[in-house]
Write a structure and sequence with these properties.
The structure is a single chain. The protein is 36% helix and 22% strand. By secondary structure, the chain is α/β, with parallel strands linked by helices. The chain folds into two domains: 6-54 and 118-212, Rossmann fold (3-Layer(aba) Sandwich); 58-112, Ybab, Chain: A (2-Layer Sandwich), CATH 3.30.1310. Helix 1 (6-16) crosses helix 2 (36-47). The longest helix is centred in the middle third of the chain and has 23 residues, at 91-113.
């Protein structure tokens, strides 16, 4: 194990992101719900930066939902065309998966924002945070959303990722911060002692605390 829980992971990641504390304009930290938000909250606290969510949904293969064939975000769609072809995913199957995840994305927009507008990313450094990377499809979509919303620079920051994973500079993230890139990587949860699922209530509480500061 590397991390006790997401708070511990966030504190370790915050230390790795320390160079952004005094950058200007002040960065905005964007957590990917649900598990990325507790991690992002610790990073935002350490950097004295605003916290918001960036809302994306993984598009899982119809016969193996844990494997991402792409992701969608607010106005952004990322698709692994090669995997879709290899796994013989039909247009109808893709449409069903996308419709289901779009409905969940819209539900989360209503639930997490509670009428608040998204943070204005125009000209800022957006630090996109998740609790780890597996395929990276969701994180890539999140970075593209941040860029589409006007961020001048996008940083992807995670506690753990596969050793061979790299961002595509200028396409998804401009910089990548990662605490650990262990060999034998199979799943994010294997590197946490406590990887209990984060709830909607916890996400809303963390965002509410940030909004009140």
């Amino acid at each position: 194990m590397i991390f006790a829980d997401r708070v511990d992971a966030g504190q370790q990641l915050a230390a790795a992101c320390a160079a952004f504390r005094d950058s200007w304009p002040r960065p905005i930290v964007l957590g990917i719900p649900r598990g990325g938000v507790p991690v992002a909250a610790e990073v935002a606290k350490a950097l004295n930066a605003p916290l918001d969510v960036i809302l994306v949904r993984k598009l899982g293969l119809p016969r193996n939902e844990e494997v991402a064939m792409g992701a969608i975000g607010e106005g952004v769609r990322v698709l692994d065309e090669g995997l879709v072809r290899t796994m013989s995913v039909t247009d109808e199957e893709l449409a069903r998966v996308e419709a289901r995840e779009q409905a969940e994305l819209e539900r989360r927009v209503r639930r997490y924002r509670e009428g608040r507008h998204p943070a204005d990313l125009t000209g800022v450094t957006a630090i996109v945070v998740d609790d780890g990377l597996a395929t990276g499809a969701t994180a890539r979509a999140a970075c593209m959303v941040a860029r589409a919303q006007g961020a001048a620079s996008v940083v992807l920051a995670v506690p753990v990722a596969p050793p061979d994973w790299q961002p595509q500079p200028g396409v998804d993230a401009d910089a990548f911060v990662c605490v650990a890139r262990p060999r034998g990587f199979f799943a994010i949860g294997q590197w946490y002692h406590d990887f209990t699922q984060t709830t909607d209530v916890e996400v809303r509480e963390l965002l509410g605390l940030s909004a009140d500061e």
